[in-house]
Amino acid sequence: MAKIDLARRAQIGRDRRAKTRAQLMQAARALYAERAIDSVTIDDLVNEAGVAKGTFYVHFEHLPDLQVAVADELAQELDDLLQPFRLQLEDPVERIAAGCAAFIREAARNPSWGSLAARGAWALPSVAHAARANLREDLRLAAARRRLGAITPELAFELVSGIVIQAMRAAGEGRLSLAAAPAAVEAILRALGLASAEAHAIVTRVFDPLEPPRAPH
Question: Is the pTM of this model over 0.90?
Fold first, then answer.
């Protein structure tokens, strides 16, 4: 009688579960990039993933559990794009410009990711929690150093986050090209009150030598 390798059987089971979970996550990302997140149903997800409906409940108890998992992935990807700049740049205004550049540029390079990240930033609060906290901190520092114009840090936060998310969405829909990304960031800096020459110089610096890690496709 053949001996059953229980360890091998358990590993095969784990591999299968990991594969079907990855299929569901990828299906969610694809659908969320195209549609309002709260409009996607479990039936939509399993059809997109090509798995049985019962498979969903092997991995997630409820639909919000899957949304949290997708949000956690996106949050990590945004942080991976942002952190290299925060480690290298001392000036808070340059950090703001570099963060905007990283997000808009990645969205233009990878439109489906840009659309997903933009929708997630609106619909899944945890997606951009760290990025928003960093932006608030940099705006407070910039205001303390008199780097902003008449705009308050609170209004500046709404302006910057709104423009970046809209630019990412436009890139996801093919309406904003990679070549237009520097102009978008320069416009953000001008809206914050920087003079044209200074805004242009900062954008040139952050777009030229620094190359952040690519977000997963």
Answer: no
Domain check: are 52 and 75 in the same one?
Answer: no
pLDDT tens for the chain, residues 1 to 217 = 555 665 555 555 465 778 999 999 999 999 999 999 999 999 999 999 999 999 999 999 999 999 999 999 999 999 888 888 778 889 999 999 999 999 999 999 999 999 999 999 988 888 888 899 999 999 999 999 999 988 999 999 999 999 999 999 999 999 999 999 999 999 999 999 999 999 999 999 988 654 544 444 4
Q: Domain with 162 in it: what CATH number?
A: 1.10.357.10
State whether 136 and 193 are in the same domain.
yes
Q: What is the DSSP string of the chain?
A: -PPP-HHHHHHHHHHHHHHHHHHHHHHHHHHHHHS-GGG--HHHHHHHHT--HHHHHHH-SSHHHHHHHHHHHHHHHHHHHHHHHHHH---HHHHHHHHHHHHHHHHHHSHHHHHHHHHHHHH-TTTTHHHHHHHHHHHHHHHHTT-S-S--HHHHHHHHHHHHHHHHHHHHTTSS-GGGHHHHHHHHHHHTT--HHHHHHHHHHHHTT--PPPPP-
